[in-house]
Fold this protein.
Amino acid sequence: MPPVQELKRGIRFGDLVLFYVVSGLSVRWTATAASAGPSILVVWVAALFCFFLPLASCVMELSSRHPDEGGLYVWTREAFGDAAAFIAAWTYWTSNLPYFAGVLYFGAASVLFAFGTRGLALESSPGYYIAFAVTWLVIITALNIRGVEAGKWLNNISALGSLLPLMVLIVLAIMSYHHFGPVTKFTAASLMPQWTLRNAVFWSGVFFAFGGVEAGSAMGDEIQNPRRVIPLAILVGGSILAFGYIAGTASLLVALPSEAVRGPDGFVNGIRVLTTSLGMDRMLLPIALFVGLNAVGGAAAYLSSTSRLPFVAGIDHYLPAAFGRIHPRYRTPWVAIGVYGLAGIIVALLGQAGTTVRGAYDVLVSMAIIAYFLPYLFVFAAMIRLQNQSTGPDVRRVPGGKPVAIALASLGLMSTMATILLSTVPAPDETNKVLSVVKVVGGCAVLVGAGIAVFLVERQRTRKSRRSGAS
């Protein structure tokens, strides 16, 4: 696909590094992981080598082969054609609709700690969580329509919500270790993961935390020199990601018992316990607000990048042509962004129906996992398929060439398939397991089916339009 000339190339190397930090490094996963005990550190390493490394390698090479607007949509189209490309993009952008509410629920729970007992009185209020999610989705959508400069600065500032709380956590954990010693005992036995179905389901969520490195490539025509910048930004941002997750989880394990960091507010609750025990209560307010900013940044990063997929599909006439429109002043795909933001708000409202706040949070996250991982099957398969395609001298290949590329993509493919299967199992503490399964599996089936229907309808409409024009 030729570059979309009307778009503004306003994303630089530093912006992209911070994008990968804010989209990939969510502090909620450190608390979620730490609640499982010391063995989760081994699982983090397994996720790093079995999923993140294959994914990062594939994205580096594929974005160098095809550094166009649309990212995984373009890669899948080059490998398997238009129908597969549309379904890959459709499942990717629809999977982020429940993700927005899920991550913003976490942010809403975290911010309450900044307001003491008065704030915590709202922790079981569905209205508060819905209002928080909807308000921020409106702000994020408006800023991204306003322009790539406004959108990227929200992402850049929100990266502080990832980095500062984790840095403070590591310092507090060191201080706690010095004063009280380690809370958790690290032994060979405690570090050995115990295989059960319940644990395997939990591990699939940990693998999910390393997703997102492909998102930046969706804005290929808005990145300055994407062939050079994307691989370098992935290398730097990915290193920060890996260190942040493993070091943050280890710090929580050193300083706190696992039960102190469970639930949507687990990270900030752990910080509260730490600051209270160290006599540093005043630190809780800014950390809680920064963690809330981290959640906002995660939603903003995915909304800004993923909205480019329906934009490109609109250009290719697999969605209504309006999705391919660019704002004459702001030079952004404003229709695609606006519709996507509105859809996120609708899903946030629907996701609360018929369950508790905690149940809604778990269902939203579970739906995001199963739908979000489907496009990775296309990405890894495209990596294998395109190894037979010739490349120019400016394309950056995976070190070791075709054999290594196929091996890494195959490893990522197997990890993804296992994660999809495990993510269908409801959480053990879900009060309505039948409703949870129906929402997760049924909801994702409806999303995929709707994508197929939209593709077929739009393809038929385009063919009729072309026949009418020819006659």
In short: The mean pLDDT is 86. The chain is about 70% helix and 0% strand.
